[in-house]
Backbone:
């Protein structure tokens, strides 16, 4: 029996306005590829933030095992980045920041770290931008930089919040293929609106709308969504109306 | 030239030159953090609020700068805590602290028996009356912040850029931003003697803004800011000596002049170079390197 990387037990979390998540249980295993879906404001991003340790839950337990202990990396691609585009920092440095826990607290980065950065930039197809300041990039390019930062440490868990919001269609396809490949070595948790498109890449589905319903397959019907209290708009692919999440070509 | 060299035989002048150099270094380092993290308004608030500490210092009969240091550090820590933990309108709170500090200062100076000698020198600086004690204080803060930036450079820059990402490492590094706030408050206070409460904010922002026109690298921005600051503060000191005008104001005047000159020159230069840009764009488009954001 494989041990989960992270285990959420009976999590209740929220902000000043009130609880956003209630009684949430979730286990993420090393080979998982979970699509997180749900209505806007349903708590998808809050769920990610609880896992990432950015929000302290009001009650319940977050348990990390081995590879995810505090001080280790979780790859994280945030959603709408509040990043200051005029901050004096280069693409290389942004990606390097994803390796901070790997260098000693007082010691400088080493050659192996710089090589890892080159590798991550190659994976996301932007090695020609290495020395650019982030203020000179387009939204799509910045998204690739942030993806490279999330990947650079080869984390055991990759968490993506709406990864395709700012990227062009071509990269969207490339990205999903890349994730599929990465999933051989790391667990992936991905929030997406576009349930239809991601269906052929993800393995399981988590419906989040205040509560969390885990659906152990990548196919889900409108009826099941309704039963899960997960009212999301489904984008259908193909001609058959109700087999909404069937693999499409 | 002889005249200039003979000036150094005056101890007050040597001290002024040292103060100008240290001011440029300390403000170059901390100012880059302030400008990058967009803390300019906060630093303006802390600087003015520290007048409360000066008033309290006079009233209690302790060194006014020590009073200012304590007052400024408490304000800075409070602000950092509030902006990180609470859901408050930060700019309004800064406005309140800003004017409250000034009010406290003026009340206690009024209550202090006797004549308060160099009030103006705290508001506008007085580099020629810097004491040996002021200089040591300035030196200590400069050395400590310089070392702190050297040792923790990566953590400082990356936390300033994207704190939530660094928090996902779940490491105990939150204290770094508090230390930086303390260093910021102390840097402001030690430079009050040089350029004054009202003008110190320009020493923390104008060199950086000039540096930022030449580089988008945090470390180089610090170095360029220090160089610009040194030229302007020594130049301002000379201006002040030869034309017999206030030193702090001369330094800031010179800095602002640099800014306008550099901005004008870069605008002119980039205007000439503009013809090249469209061709470059197109080339990159064809090789598929430029991606259009889907918004």
Residues:
């Amino acid at each position: 029996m494989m041990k989960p990387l992270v285990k959420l037990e009976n999590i209740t979390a929220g902000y000043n306005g009130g609880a956003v998540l209630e009684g949430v249980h979730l286990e993420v295993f090393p080979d998982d590829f979970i699509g997180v879906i749900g209505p806007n404001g349903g708590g998808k991003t809050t769920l990610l933030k609880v896992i990432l340790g950015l929000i302290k839950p009001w009650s319940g337990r977050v348990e990390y095992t081995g590879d995810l202990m505090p001080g280790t990396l979780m790859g994280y691609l945030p959603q709408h980045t509040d990043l200051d585009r005029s901050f004096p920092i280069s693409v290389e440095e942004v990606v390097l920041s994803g390796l901070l826990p790997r260098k000693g607290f007082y010691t400088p980065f080493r050659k192996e770290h710089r090589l890892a950065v080159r590798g991550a930039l190659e994976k996301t197809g932007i090695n020609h931008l290495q020395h650019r300041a982030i203020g000179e990039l387009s939204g799509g390019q910045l998204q690739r930089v942030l993806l490279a930062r999330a990947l650079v440490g080869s984390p055991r868990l990759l968490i993506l919040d709406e990864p395709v919001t700012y990227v062009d269609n071509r990269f969207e396809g490339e990205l999903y293929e890349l994730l599929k490949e990465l999933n051989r070595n790391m667990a992936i948790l991905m929030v997406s609106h576009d349930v239809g498109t991601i269906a052929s890449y993800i393995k399981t589905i988590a419906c989040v709308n205040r509560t969390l319903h885990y659906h152990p397959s990548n196919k889900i019907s409108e009826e099941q969504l309704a039963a899960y209290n997960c009212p999301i708009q489904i984008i259908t692919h193909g001609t058959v109306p109700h087999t909404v999440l069937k693999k499409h070509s | 030239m002889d005249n200039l060299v003979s000036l150094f035989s005056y101890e007050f002048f040597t001290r002024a030159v040292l103060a100008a150099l240290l001011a440029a270094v300390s403000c170059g380092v901390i100012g880059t953090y302030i400008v990058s993290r967009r803390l300019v308004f906060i630093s303006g608030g802390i600087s003015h609020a520290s007048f409360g500490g000066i008033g309290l210092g006079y009233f209690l009969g302790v060194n006014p700068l020590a009073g200012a240091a304590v007052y400024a550090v408490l304000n800075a820590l409070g602000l950092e805590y509030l902006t990180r933990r609470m859901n408050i309108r930060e700019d309004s709170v800064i406005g309140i602290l800003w004017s409250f500090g000034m009010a406290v200062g003026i009340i206690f100076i009024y209550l202090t028996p006797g004549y308060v000698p160099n009030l103006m020198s705290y508001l506008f600086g007085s580099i020629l009356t810097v004491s040996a004690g002021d200089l040591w204080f300035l030196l200590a803060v400069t050395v400590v912040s310089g070392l702190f930036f050297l040792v923790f450079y990566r953590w400082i820059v990356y936390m300033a850029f994207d704190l939530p990402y660094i928090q996902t490492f779940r490491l105990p590094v939150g204290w770094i931003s508090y230390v930086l706030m303390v260093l910021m408050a102390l840097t402001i206070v030690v430079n009050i003697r040089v350029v004054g409460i009202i003008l110190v904010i320009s020493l923390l922002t104008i060199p950086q803004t000039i540096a930022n026109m030449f580089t988008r690298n945090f470390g180089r921005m610090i170095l360029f800011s220090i160089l610009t600051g040194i030229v302007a503060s020594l130049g301002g000191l000379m201006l002040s000596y030869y034309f017999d005008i206030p030193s702090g104001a001369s330094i800031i005047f010179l800095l602002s002049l640099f800014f306008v000159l550099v901005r004008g020159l870069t605008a002119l230069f980039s205007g000439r170079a503009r013809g090249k840009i469209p061709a470059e764009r197109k080339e990159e488009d064809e090789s598929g390197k430029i991606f259009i954001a889907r918004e």
